[in-house]
Amino acid sequence: MSEALVASTALAADSSAARASGARQFWRRLRAQRAALVAAAVVALLVLVALAAPLLTAIEGQDPTTYHPSLVDSARGGVPVGPLGGIGADHWLGVEPQTGRDLFARLVYGARVSLGVALAATLVQVLIAVVVGVAAALGKRWVDQLLSRITEIIVALPLMIMSLALLAIVPGSFPRPVLVALVIGLIAWGTLAKIVRAHTLTLKQLDYVAAARLSGWGTWRIARRELLPGLAAPLITYSALLVPANIGVEAALSFLGVGVKPPTPSWGQMLTAADVWYQAAPQYLLLPAGALFVTVLALTVLGDGVRVALDPRAASRLRVGTGRRSEAKADASTDTPAGGADLPRQDAGTPPQGTAVPRPGAPADETKEATA
């Protein structure tokens, strides 16, 4: 038992040192990807804008809910007065048609709702997926079968239809952003749970987990101390890719009228109200659509960069047109020997150097001697 304990301690020390070295390698690989760094800067800026929304609107002197009927032309159906939708010193991005509410204030407060709902839904998904996936991998056979069947049912459920049904029956007094985050998180965790289960089954076979089991550790202590650190890399990767997907789901639900309710601003809700103003006030549609596009694109690029940094053998899915160049470089490296000197290439049908070639029309004896 003491030998097993010593082995477990040594393996734990080695694994902690390996994790520290792996973290340094991860940051070095991530810094080498310019697109991922730009995407990370964009995401950080969006988060900063969302957090500083009250300060930014206070500097502008506006808020997202105050109506300004004098800034819209009621004779023309509520079109904003002034050039470019009423853009000016008091309203940096113009005003909303019909109501005259400040677009900049609604846009930055909408970032808080969209990003907050997406991050909260991702957190719920990760928590449920880790519990279900680890329990299925470490539990008995009947536990694994039961949880696997439940996970498959969750994966088969249509996300949008189930979300529409659940959001329609919940009373309106319940906070809508919290409800949307819970609904998305409770319905869309199945795929991540299957990934966690597969990775946990792989980690169970490693030596340091076997050493911890021989030292007398319990199942959940092994899961907490040995398995969860090994699951960090795939969880970070898939969580970074889940956030933009959840932003899209929240925008779609708000666009369909069952998501965030007015007067709480949301990018999806703004798109819903702007669908009839794309000609009279195009900025009312383009601003939330552009913010949503930039956010989803930045998070997708960042998630792809994190995936490549954690697994250097995986190629980026966002690279286009580099396949032939990579193959050409690989072919050139195989043609060049290790010393770096280029060897003369030999055409097909040409005999090796140093081999005698018979003269055309030579007698049979000379031909035999040449080919011997």
Task: Map the helices and strands.
Elements (H helix, E strand, L loop, with lengths): L1 H30 L2 H18 L1 H8 L11 E2 L5 E2 L22 H36 L2 H16 L2 H11 L6 H12 L2 H14 L3 H8 L4 H37 L11 H8 L7 H29 L12 H13 L28 H8 L1
Antiparallel strand pairs: 1-2
Helix pairs in contact: 1-9, 1-12, 2-4, 2-12, 3-4, 4-5, 4-7, 4-8, 4-10, 5-8, 6-7, 8-10, 9-10, 10-11, 10-12, 11-12
Q: What would you note in describing this structure?
A:
Helix 5 (141-156) packs antiparallel against helix 8 (190-203). The chain has helices spanning 2-31, 34-51, 53-60, 103-138, 141-156, 159-169, 176-187, 190-203, 207-214, 219-255, 267-274, 282-310, 323-335, 364-371; strands at residues 72-73, 79-80. A hairpin with a 5-residue loop joins strand 1 and strand 2 (79-80). It has a single domain, classed as MetI-like fold (Orthogonal Bundle). A two-stranded antiparallel ribbon has the order 1-2. 67% of the residues lie in helices and 1% in strands. It is mainly alpha-helical and 372 residues long. The chain starts with a helix and ends with a helix. Residues 4-8, 320-324, 333-357 and 364-372 have low confidence and may be disordered. The protein is elongated. The protein contains 14 helices and two strands; from the N terminus they run H-H-H-E-E-H-H-H-H-H-H-H-H-H-H-H.
